[in-house]
Every structure is written in C-alpha cells, then in structure tokens.
Amino acid sequence: MTQLRDVLAVDPESFRLDKVDPKGTPGLPDTKAVRKDAKAWSKEAVAAIGSELAAYQEKLFASAKSGQTSRRVLLLLQAMDCGGKDGTVRSVFGGLNPTGIKAVSFGPPTDEEKRQNFLWRVERALPAAGQVGVFNRSHYEDVLVVRVHDLVPENVWSRRYDQINKFEAAQAEDGLTLVKVMLHISPEEQRQRLLDRLDDPAKYWKYNPGDVTERARWDDYQAAYQDALTRCSTVANPWFVVPADRKWYRNWAVATLLRDALASIDPQYPPAGFDVETERQRLSTPDSHGS
Amino acid sequence: MTQLRDVLAVDPESFRLDKVDPKGTPGLPDTKAVRKDAKAWSKEAVAAIGSELAAYQEKLFASAKSGQTSRRVLLLLQAMDCGGKDGTVRSVFGGLNPTGIKAVSFGPPTDEEKRQNFLWRVERALPAAGQVGVFNRSHYEDVLVVRVHDLVPENVWSRRYDQINKFEAAQAEDGLTLVKVMLHISPEEQRQRLLDRLDDPAKYWKYNPGDVTERARWDDYQAAYQDALTRCSTVANPWFVVPADRKWYRNWAVATLLRDALASIDPQYPPAGFDVETERQRLSTPDSHGS
User: Percent of chain A having pLDDT more than 70?
Assistant: First the structure.
C-alpha cells in the first residue's frame, strides 16, 4: 500500500512547486465516509490519529527516560503568511502531553542571534531525547525571506543549502527524525484569510500589514521555495509539500505524516530496571510507611 | 458566592496539613449531576473548563504579542511521589495551544545548576509574557527534599523561605500570576499507585525503587511541607492544597483554580494597530498579488 509520505515527498529531480494544486487532496482515502462529508471525516480521523500520537509520544518519552535512546522527532513547518502553521499545530498536537512537547516559533533573529551562525539558534531549539518538537518557521527562512530581500549577499545564502543538508544529516545520525512540511496555499486563499482577519476584531492581532507588502513578492518566494525544497530534500530528510487551501485535508495529511514517522521509530516501553517481586515485597513490609 | 480559591487557600496562621483529608472534595458543587456520577461529571466539567482556558490563553498570548502587557501565568505543582503531577498536567493542559505553553520539569540540579543560587534555574524557566507555564516540581524542592536529607546546612535552607517570598513577590510585580498547588495524597494511596505500576509493564518506566525508600521519611516530608506551605503562602502568591486521592476531584479543582486565575487577569484582544479600511483597500488593489 502506498503511504502518504510517498505521495507528498519532494523528488529533487522532478519536483515543480508550480505544478502542485493548493486545493488538491493527494493520497486522500476514497471511502464512503470521505465522499459523504470529508470535513467531518477528517475531524474524526485527526482525533483518532491524535490518540495514536499520544501513545507513541509516551513510549518515546519512556524509552528516553531509561537512557537507552536519543531518538526524538521534530515537525518543521514552513508556509507563506496565513499558510496555517498555527492552526496545524493546534490541530495535530492537541492530544499530546505538553511535558513531552518542545514548540518553538522563529521570528526575525535578535541582535545576539545575528552575531552567530544562522544554525546556532536552531540547534538550541531542537527537541531533547524523547521529546516531540515542532518548529513554526525554521532555518529555512535563511534561504527564503533572506534571499528574497537580499538580507545577506548571494554568496552567503547560496552556500546555506549545503550547510543545512549537512546539519540535518548530522542530527539524523544523532537520533532526530525530521518531518519537514511546507503548507502550500494559493495567493487567492491568502487574500481571503487576510480579509477574514480584518472582518473579526478577535483576529486583528494576527493581521500584519507587512504581509500585504510581502504579497507583491509572491513569485520570488515561490522561486526561493522551489530551490529550498529541491536542494534540501534528501533521502534521510525529505521535504513534504502539503496542499493547504483546504484546512481539513492539511490537518489530516500532517497528522498522518507525523504518525507514520513515529510508527517507523516504533518506540517501546523499557523493561524494568529492578526486580518486580522484590519491589512488591518492599511495599508490603512494615518499615515502609502506611500499610 | 465562595470561590474555590477561598476554600483551598492556605491561611499561614491556622493551616494544618495533617488536618486535610486527602480523600476530601472541598468546594465540590452539590448538584444532581455530581451526586449521580461525580467522575463522569468531572470529565465533562474539566473539558468545558479546558475550552475556557484555551480562549483565555489565546487572549493572553494576543495581548502580549501587541507588546502592551507582560502578564503571564504559571501553575506550580508540588506533591509527594505518585501525587499525580503528570496526570494533572495532561488533564488540565490537554486543550491548550502548545505554542503558548511552557512546561518544565525539575529534577535534581545539574553540576552547573548547583554552582548557582537555587533560584537561578527557576528564573530561566519562567513563562514569557503571554505564555501559560507549568512547573512539575519547583524551587520548593530546595526546602523539601533538600531539608529532609540535609543536602545543605540548616542555616542555608532556613533562609530560603524569605528568599522565595521575595523572588515570587518580584515576579508578581513583573506580571506573573502564580498558582501554587500542592497535590495532597495519603500514604495508602501512594502505596496503591506504586503497586499499580508494578502490575503493568507499560508503567515500569514510572517506577523508581527510590520512591519506596523515601516513604520511610513520610512524616519528615509532611513537616517540611507544613513549613513551606505556611511560610510561603502570601496574599500575592498563596498556596493551595488540593486533596488528590481522588483524581477526578483533583483535575476539576486544579483546572478551576487555573481558570479563575486567568479570569481575574481577564486578558483582552488588542485593538487594531492599523486602519482596517485602508488594509481592505490594499488587499483589493491590483499591485497586491492574486486578485
């Protein structure tokens, strides 16, 4: 059976972002329930996957606590403004245990961060062994907004693709399973979402006039994404492009990619590091309290 | 109407931990639904409070993003081993947005942490403006386990109560709303929970033989808690003791305390920092993309 990851993975040789339909639903199961009401189906499917994710998360956390493994998982989300990164995090991570999550949002670098290599702040934000992390934006901004706005010279950003690949490869060797997802929306959908924010005072805080300015550079951003996606989609750390105009499809697709990544790790509860019968005895002897 | 916080708050003059029944349910509403099936009622009540918490969390996050406020909230959990700290976090924070949560667990200090003042690692772990934090254990361990096991001399730990009060008072001035909760279980309940962990291989990883050793010091721990609870329950930063043998009561009580803390802040969405009509116009002019 074809896995969703095979449908959505970026093939560096042949991938073309402009051929991906942001309204598409690739890999969607063709069942009665989906045909009847895809939104309702997705809500139930995402909740069920959420339970699977919570179970995997506990096992991953438990196995790391025993010191046996350095495995950890990171969902990395990139998108144009209004692409749905926040909504995806809320939907996909809703059922997980906050103690085992490391959620990090990246904004423009601070002065201190600017003095360091661009990967410095990223390395510090990685999940620890046993954790599930999520990045809202990432080091890819350093070949996206930085390139579109010439924030560093081309001979600097153009070397970053290789630097990113080496960095990610080293992390993979160190137990990191990276799930890199670009949420792909259309300019029309972005415009509608920006207008929606202007229609609801409870959403004003999400509206940034700068986003409208950035829309004028849409094609430059798509070109920068095309290069980032193809130059940094490797066998160990592939990129996935998820059509994201339809939120119900997006939530299902990202939850599925994350679930399948955890399933491939297949974390296990560690065995007892003590003798169970001895401990039962200790708990029934009078020198322990309260029995 | 009496609020739950008034029922559970520690009065430094009169509080006696040994008079609190760990099986009690103080402040529980006396309604038909509760009398019929308190567990089922609690599950629904906690889910409903979770929705309120999520709404408050978004407003708190939004108000901080606008730079208008440094308000932030921290739930601090202390308990004897098996007291239910992890389960409480899962239950109470289940519906919140992970991006706005800062969850920190404190273990024995590292060598680096030992070289610093005991509050050093705590200050670094506080939630940022707009975040809701949760501490699983805290700086109170420095007057609990540290005192019971003489890890520092008495003239060091005995000064810490005042140091803690000053630290917390300064944070309150800086916008931190601190909800300090001790989950109070009985030694019999602890014994049962330890035995349950020995009965289920999926729970072995939570079982620590050292916990049985610590049970022999139960009364010393209770005395240390008595002092910490009364010496550090202030008007600005009161302690709450939640009877925790019944998990359904515990979850409801902690969720309610946290909800009421956020309600007293009453965070608001910030007003638009731009002209709404101008922005609508910008989004409909042809120099913006895709329309």
Answer: 98
What was the pLDDT predicted at B291? 44
Radius of gyration (C-alpha) of chain A in whole angstroms: 22
Residue A195 near chain B (CB below 8 Å): yes
Instruction: Give the three-class secondary structure for B177.
Output: strand
Q: For residue B243, what are the β-bridge partners?
A: B184
Instruction: Please answer yes or no on whether B65 and A205 come within 8 Å at the CB atom.
Output: yes
Q: Is A221 on the interface with B (CB under 8 A)?
A: no
Contact across the interface for B101 and A98, Cβ inside 8 Å: yes
* Chain A stretch 1-60, residues whose beta carbon is closer than 8 A to a beta carbon of chain B: none
Cα B287 to Cα B291: distance, rounded to the nearest angstrom: 9
Query: What are the structure tokens assigned to A102, written together?
Result: 């490391």
pLDDT above 60: residue B90:
yes
Looking at residue A291, what is its pLDDT? Answer: 44
Position A66 pLDDT exceeds 90? no
Looking at the partner chain, which of B90, B198, B206 has a beta carbon nearest the beta carbon of A97? B90
pTM: 0.94
**Distant-in-sequence, close-in-space partners of A63: CB < 8 Å, separation ≥ 6:** A69, A71, A130, A267, A268, A269, A270, B205
Q: In this structure, which CATH number among 2.60.40.1120, 3.40.50.300, 3.40.50.720, 3.40.50.1980 belongs to the domain A4-266?
A: 3.40.50.300
In terms of CA atoms, which chain A residue is nearest residue B59? A202
Q: Residue ranges of the domains in chain A?
A: 4-266
**Which residue type occupies B55?**
A
Would you call B270 an interface residue with chain A, using a CB distance cutoff of 8 Å?
A: yes
Which ipTM did the prediction report?
Answer: 0.91
Q: Which long-range contacts (CB under 8 A, 24 or more apart) does A57-60 make?
A: A57/A96, A57/A97, A57/A100, A57/A132, A57/A262, A58/A97, A58/A100, A59/A267, A59/A268, A59/A269, A60/A100, A60/A130, A60/A131, A60/A132, A60/A262, A60/A265, A60/A267
Do B161 and B143 contact (CB within 8 A), yes or no? Answer: yes
Nearest to A287 among B93, B198, B216 (CB): B216
Q: Which residue of A212, A254, A277 is the best one to mutate when testing the B interface, meaning the one whose CB has the most B CBs within 10 A? A: A212
- B-proximal residues of A, 239-268, CB under 8 Å: none
